[in-house]
Design goal:
The chain is flat, with a radius of gyration of 15 Å. It has a four-stranded antiparallel beta sheet with strand order 3-4-5-6, with no helix packed on it. A two-stranded antiparallel sheet has the order 1-2. The protein is mainly beta.
């Protein structure tokens, strides 16, 4: 999975597109990352208060939330906008 997050392009149908997850998960100044474990496995990954190109930022703003649902075996990614 990590290689697909880091790859520059992904396949969508018969086309190659710029990898949107790579841009979303790129580290930014002032970020806080929280990883929650279920037993010994990570099941939630949250990114808070990423630096913005302009204006003041809210230090507790949740920007990205990634959760693994063990019952459905799906990964849910939610992006939040200020």
């Amino acid at each position: 999975m990590l290689s697909s997050i880091r790859s520059e392009f992904v396949v969508q149908g018969t086309s190659y597109i710029a990898n949107p997850l790579r841009r979303v998960l790129m580290p930014r100044a002032g970020q806080k990352i929280v990883i929650c474990l279920l037993g010994d496995q990570p099941n939630q990954f949250s990114i808070c208060s990423a630096a913005r190109s302009f204006g003041q930022r809210q230090p507790d703003f949740l920007a990205v939330d990634i959760r693994y649902d063990t019952s459905s075996r799906l990964i849910n990614l939610t992006l939040f906008e200020e």
